[in-house]
Each structure stands twice: as structure tokens, then as C-alpha cells.
Specification:
two-stranded parallel ribbon; 14% strand; 8 strands; 5 helices; endopeptidase fold (from Nostoc punctiforme); 6-stranded antiparallel beta sheet; 2 domains; alpha+beta
Length: 283
């Protein structure tokens, strides 16, 4: 066993470096003050013997530090809350702007659609008025032709001229002439556009006669007639009778009405314009 094992230590406990530095600073400041005061006094002044008690700063310093830390944390939290609030406001503003832009585009689209519909309706009304006017004019011309035809019959006029169709033939011819000026559209059956067989089928329907839809079948109906012996209402065809590719209606006076092609639409032309291959009589 060591000889010094039971010898108690007389060393004082070490103080922390921070406490020593603080006390040394305070003590130094006080001593400096005393020294300056002593130097400023008279030379024969008595030495200061009053004992100055050093204040204890540890508790106050700790409290101040805690307050500062708490204030800093509160300020940091407030900044974070302000930033979050600003972000929410920015997001709400961006969403509102996007919705307003979308609503504006939708309103413009609806306005354009309404304007297009209005123009289309106005155009349709104008076309209907034009067709009605054209039909009325043709009806007047037809009535004048009928009157002239009656005079010819009384005076021995020529047979089967343009205004001499009667009965079912008159209904067919009048309908066909009323469509002159309409458009030609392949596969169309009216009322504002036609193909050749669609027009013939619709015209014969005015006389209560239902014809097949296509030109080949239409030219196969009835009986064949010579082109020198045509009567109003006869069906003219181009190609062979059993396999014709085009049909039209003879309206008298060496004229026919037919839906020719997209370039001309429904027209009334002389037989010399496009001589047909043959004709059939269904009436």
C-alpha cells in the first residue's frame, strides 16, 4: 500500500475557465477604476481601505441569454408563418387567375359558336327565301305555258311542247323544274341537294310512283321509247338501259332537267347539250 494513500488532499476544486475569466474581467475593471481614482487624487491622500463587494452576474447573464434565445426562436417561427401565409396567398392568386382565364376562353368559345349558328340560320333562311321565290317564278311561268298550250290545242299547235304536260306528268315536270339551281351532291336525295337518281325518284314520288333508288334500276322500269317520240315525264338515261350511269327527266320542247354534276348542279338543258342513250316511259 502506498504511504500517501490516506493523506487527504488539500487542493481546492477547480473553477471553470469561463467563471474565472468573468471574475478576472470584473476584478480588473474595478481595480483599474480604483487605480485611476487614486492617481487623480492628491498625492498625500490616504489610501482607500473600503472593501468593495463584487457583484454576482451568473444568474442575470443566464436569464438574459435565455430571453434572447426565446425571442430569436419566436421571431424565426413568425417569419416561417409569414412565408407560409404568403405562399398560400400566391397559390390562391395563381389558381384564381387560371380559372378566370379558362372562364374567359369558354365564354369566347360559346360566343363564337352562337355567332356561327346565327350566321348559318340566316344563310338557311336566305336560301329558303330564294328557293321559294324561284319556285313561285317557275310556277308562274308554268301557268303561262299551260295557258299558251291550251291556245295551241284550240288552234292546232304542235304536240308535246314544254308547257303541255298534264296530270301526273305535269306534277313530275313541275317538281323537277322547281329544283333547278340546287346543288349536286353524290348520294343526296334533297331537299336542297340531289344526285341524278335522287332527283328522278323524288319527282316521280309527286305523282305517287315509287321508283328504285339507283339509275340502273330506274332505267329498267317501264317501256322503252324512241328519242323521236318523247313525252314530258319520260326518264332519259345515259349508258345501257340495264346499266345506265345517269338519268334525267324530259320536260318537253326538246329540254330535260337533271342533276348533272358538282360543277353545274341541277340544270335544265337541251337534248343537244348532252344527247341521251335512250328513254323509258313509266307513266
Amino acid at each position: 500500500m502506498s504511504h500517501t494513500a490516506h493523506i487527504p488532499s488539500h487542493r481546492k476544486p477547480r473553477r471553470s475557465a469561463s467563471k474565472l475569466a468573468l471574475r478576472a474581467g470584473v476584478a480588473g475593471g474595478v481595480l483599474s477604476t480604483i487605480a485611476v481614482a487614486g492617481a487623480a487624487g492628491p498625492a498625500n491622500a490616504e489610501p482607500v481601505t473600503e472593501t468593495i463587494e463584487m457583484p454576482t452576474l451568473n444568474a442575470d447573464l443566464s436569464a438574459d441569454l435565455s430571453s434572447a434565445v426565446a425571442a430569436s426562436a419566436e421571431a424565426t417561427q413568425q417569419i416561417a408563418l409569414d412565408q407560409e401565409l404568403q405562399a398560400q396567398e400566391d397559390a390562391a392568386a395563381a389558381k384564381a387567375a387560371k380559372e378566370a382565364k379558362k372562364a374567359k376562353a369558354e365564354a369566347e368559345r360559346k360566343a363564337e359558336a352562337a355567332e356561327a349558328e346565327r350566321k348559318a340560320e340566316a344563310k338557311a333562311q336566305a336560301e329558303a327565301a330564294e328557293r321559294a321565290s324561284r319556285s313561285a317564278e317557275r310556277t308562274t311561268l308554268s301557268a303561262s305555258a299551260d295557258s299558251s298550250s291550251s291556245s295551241d290545242e284550240d288552234g292546232g299547235g304542235s304536240s308535246y311542247d314544254a308547257g303541255q304536260a298534264t296530270g301526273s306528268a305535269a306534277a313530275i315536270v313541275a317538281f323537277a323544274r322547281a329544283q333547278v339551281g340546287d346543288a349536286y351532291v353524290m348520294g343526296s336525295t334533297g331537299p336542297n341537294s340531289w344526285d341524278c337518281s335522287g332527283l328522278v325518284q323524288a319527282a316521280y314520288r309527286q305523282a305517287g310512283i315509287e321508283l328504285p333508288r339507283v339509275s340502273g334500276d330506274q332505267s329498267s322500269r317501264g317501256t322503252s321509247v324512241s328519242l323521236d317520240n318523247l313525252q314530258p315525264g319520260d326518264i332519259l338515261y345515259w349508258g345501257s338501259r340495264s346499266n345506265s350511269y345517269h338519268v334525267a327527266i324530259y320536260v318537253g320542247g326538246g329540254m330535260f332537267v337533271g342533276a348533272q354534276n358538282p360543277g353545274t348542279g341541277v340544270v335544265e338543258r337541251s337534248l343537244d347539250y348532252d344527247p341521251p342513250s335512250g328513254a323509258v316511259r313509266v307513266l
